[in-house]
Amino acid sequence: MSMLQDIQEVFYSQEDLAQIANRLGHQISHDYKDRNLLIVSVLKGSVIFMADLMRSITIPCKIDFITASSYHAGTESSGKVSVTDELSVKDVHGYDILIVEDILDTGRTLQKLSDIFNKKGAASVKICTLLDKPERRDPSVRIKPTYVGAEVRNEFVVGYGLDFDQKYRNLPFIGILKPEVYNTETQNEEESH
Question: For residue 115, how far is the Cα from the chain centroid?
Fold first, then answer.
């Protein structure tokens, strides 16, 4: 069975995504010249974007990873953000942190991470998101991304790191998942409980 049959429409091609990573990488390189940049990838979704973005950044920087989520296995945010791993860089004082995320949806996860890094004394905390879905933003969230690859409408997208129930991350493009795929999976889960 091919994953492609579950895709309703290709939203961003491989070529589109390469251009986005290049554009953002050059802008970040310009903005953070002579700064102490620490790029933090939010696992697991941003790892593919992070890899491409890093290769487009031309200034010295450190990278690290953190695991945080509010989705778990469904298509709707649970509203509860869990941070399950800490950075390997223990002291973030003096670092300009750039959080790299696959998609900015409700904003709760990125708000929590920003608050954590600010409390720990980072010199600055900014956000770079591959996709922004402003229609879904929680009104109580105060953050705004500094770097945005592209905006997406309120559709469930997968590929290039984005998943549904841990699947579809390995698609080389971003596509809209057919609603019957996640509706069927959600229904099957509910029936099995």
Answer: 17
pTM: 0.87
Q: Is the pLDDT of residue 78 over 80?
A: no
Total number of residues shown for the chain: 193
Question: Which residue in 52, 30, 33, 7 sits closest to 161, CA to CA?
Answer: 52
- Which is higher by pLDDT, 189 or 138? 138
Higher pLDDT, 184 or 177: 177
Q: What is the 3-state secondary structure (H, E, C) of the chain?
A: CCHHHHEEEEEECHHHHHHHHHHHHHHHHHHCCCCCEEEEEEECCCHHHHHHHHHHCCCCCEEEEEEEECCCCCCCCCCCCEECCCCCCCCCECCEEEEEEEEECCCHHHHHHHHHHHHCCECEEEEEEEEECHHHCCCCCCCCCCEEEEECCCCCEEECCECECCECCCCCCEEEECHHHHHHHHHHHHHHC
pLDDT at 184: 66
Whether 105 is a known active-site residue: answer yes
d(CA 183, CA 122): 41
Marked catalytic residue, from 6, 96, 102, 105: 105
Domain residue ranges of the chain, discontinuous segments joined by +: 14-152
The fold of 14-152 is Rossmann fold (3.40.50)
Q: State the pLDDT at residue 81.
A: 73
